[in-house]
Amino acid sequence: MDRAEKREVVTALHDAIAKTGVIVVAHYAGLSVSDMTKFRRDVRGAGGHVKVAKNRLAKLALEGTNAKGIADLLKGPTCLAYSDDPVAAPKVAVKFAKANEKFVILGGAMGTTVLDPQGVTSLANLPSLDELRGKLIGLVQAPASKIARILNEPGAQLARVFAAYGRTSEAA
């Protein structure tokens, strides 16, 4: 790889990291090509990307971004999984790490916050953006249905009162 290609890789990676919501750094030593391909496919399916680059080039790409604090994690065979959704890449990475013992999560970054492996795991346990949207819509719709029930209830109570009075006057 000549200097121009390296510069191109650094620029592309820098742009991707600058626009992303979360980055997960992991060791992948000992994984087969099919396992790594499966990981890439899973991350892509969740809306993220996986990048394997030389650590020196990745460190250069991290300069000037919010995630520059993870540069210390880039030692040995590392890959970067990143996504715009703050829980997509961590969810896939943690699930993949549970299934493959050779895939080790080193940490990550969300904005300017540097995450340790436990931070990535706790981020993965959060509900996804789509799940949160569903819950929010449910919460917004619930009060409307309750209001409709409350507005209909006084008329029903009034009808029950009249019916009760009618039964008592018939009995008398």
Sum this structure up briefly.
It contains six helices and five strands, in the order H-E-H-E-H-E-H-E-E-H-H.
Structure, explained:
There is one protein chain. This protein is α+β, with helices and mostly antiparallel strands and 172 residues long. The chain folds into 2 domains: 3-126, Ribosomal protein L10, N-terminal RNA-binding domain (Alpha-Beta Plaits, 2-Layer Sandwich), CATH 3.30.70; 127-172. The protein has 6 helices and 5 strands; from the N terminus they run αβαβαβαββαα. A 5-stranded antiparallel beta sheet has the order 2-3-1-4-5. The mean pLDDT is 86.
Blueprint (SSEs and pairs):
Elements: H1 3-19, E1 22-27, H2 33-45, E2 48-51, H3 55-62, E3 78-83, H4 88-99, E4 104-110, E5 113-115, H5 117-124, H6 129-171
Antiparallel strand pairs: 1-3, 1-4, 2-3, 4-5
Helix pairs in contact: 1-3, 4-5
* Cα end-to-end separation: 103 Å
CATH fold title of the largest domain: Alpha-Beta Plaits
Estimate the strand proportion: 15-25%
Number of domains: 2
Assign a percent range to the helix content.
55-70%
In CATH, the architecture of the largest domain is: 2-Layer Sandwich
- The strands making up the biggest β-sheet line up spatially as 2-3-1-4-5
N-to-C series of helices and strands? HEHEHEHEEHH
